[in-house]
Structures are given as C-alpha cells and as structure tokens.
Amino acid sequence: MIRGFLFDLDGVIVDTAKYHYVAWQRMASALDIHFGHEENEQLKGISRVESLERILTWGALTLSEEEKQHWMTQKNAWYLDCIAQMGAEEILPGVAEFLENARDQGFKISLGSASKNAVPILERIGLLSAFDAIVDGTVVSASKPNPEVFLEGARRLGLPPEACLVFEDAAAGVEAALAGGMACVGLGDPLVLGAAHRVIQSFSEIPDPQLLVDSL
Ligand code: BG6
Ligand code: MG
Fold first, then answer.
1. Whole-angstrom Cα distance, residue 94 to residue 32?
2. Closest-lying ligand to the alpha carbon of 20?
C-alpha cells in the first residue's frame, strides 16, 4: 500500500531545465563545445559534477580538477542569476493543490532531488513546508539512476520502498525509482518515461492523490 510520495524537483515541481540550459550553454560556448537542447535533455536528473563530465566528454576536452571546480562554480553562479527572480508563479500546474490534498489524505511527502539548490528554490516558491523530509544533492552523492536519493527519502519518511511512489520527469529518475523497488509516475513524454507505472502530463490531470494511487 502506497503511504509516501517522493518528489523530484526540477521538471516536476518547477521547470528549471531552461535555466540549467542557459548556464551550461554559457559554459560550453566559453569552452567551444557544442551544447544544444538535445544535450540538455540528457542531463535531466543528473548531478552537477556528472553533467560537467558528460559535457567535457562530448567536447573531447580534458580539464584538471581545479578547472572543473572553477567551471562548476561559474555555472552555478550563472544558474543562480537565472533563478533569482523565481516565485510561486513558476510552480508547475496542479502541484500545489496535489501536495495539499496529499497532506490532507495522510500521505508522507519527501523531496528526492539531485540539486544542491533545492532548499532555496522551495523557499522562494513557498513550498518548503509542504515536505516532511528533504533529500537533495547536499545529502546524497550518487547521481540518478542510482536509487540512493529515493531510498534515503523512504528511510526519512519511515517507510519501506514498496510503500513509496516517486514522481519523476527524467528517464534516469524513473530508472532510479524502479531500481529502489518503488512505484513511479512519470511527468512528461511517454516515449522517454515509458518504464514508469503511469505517465501523466501534469498534476492538474489528476488532483486527487488517492485516485492516482488506486489507478496504478
Ligand atoms: C537535477 C537536474 O534535478 O539537479 C539536473 O535535473 C541538475 O539538470 C541537477 O544538474 C543538479 O542541480 P544543481 O542545482 O545542484 O546544479
Ligand atoms: Mg527532474
């Protein structure tokens, strides 16, 4: 029986992929590496350090550890510039209502995100208090599809993995949820997220959490 929800952040609660794109694009262009929307798609759910490694591999570029640190710091500064103005209006459709209904229906709720910027983003959009636990990139080091982030979320909710349902927009995140022994609902393209138990386009499609759980 599902009693807990584990929410990815980027692409599930807010659409930050466009901001990550701007920041990585700026870095790639400074390093003379091609980086388009197709490449950005492949970085969804992937940690900052792993994302940098992939971009460098695509550009066949080798950097020292200090140079990598420099670019990660620089990329994050550009990203922070992009999200500085973010507010509640950027919460994706139906998310706030779904979270409220989930709480009313007694579900436990955790964040399960690779981002190190998760807490400031949740504060800015006014949703931090909607979560019973926060597991983010400052807590775990293994990048999705490793299930660590979701297993730690389940543990913090005091639930076994099979009592948890993960919401994910990235193929790597769906893979992580399944590897952790959890149910998974994909948000987005069924062609990309087909391995999930169900794929929806938006939370406004199904605002009643219990109904969604019953449909799995
Ligand atoms: C994930 C995003 O949620 O967080 C990735 O989908 C991002 O694109 C990763 O690289 C790490 O984010 P941050 O904010 O720590 O750079
Ligand atoms: Mg995501």
1. 40
2. 1
Q: Which amino acid is at 214?
A: D
Ligand 1 site, CB within 6 A: 9-10, 20, 43-48, 51, 76, 113-117, 137
Q: pTM above 0.85?
A: yes
For residue 92, the ligand closest to its alpha carbon is 2
Q: Which CATH number fits domain 4-15+89-215: 3.40.50.300, 3.40.50.1000, 2.30.30.40, 3.40.50.10210?
A: 3.40.50.1000
Please report the atom of ligand 1 found closest to the CA of residue 50. Answer: 10
Task: Provide the residue type at 146 as one letter.
Answer: N
For residue 210, how far is the Cα from the chain centroid? 22
Verify whether residue 8 is a known catalytic residue.
yes
Sorting pLDDT into bands at 50, 70 and 90, what band is 1? Answer: very high
Phi-psi category of residue 194: left, alpha or beta, with phi > 0 → left and psi -120 to 50 → alpha: alpha
pLDDT grade for 141, boundaries at 50, 70 and 90: confident
Determine the distance separating the centroid of ligand 2 and the alpha carbon of 54, expressed in angstroms. 17
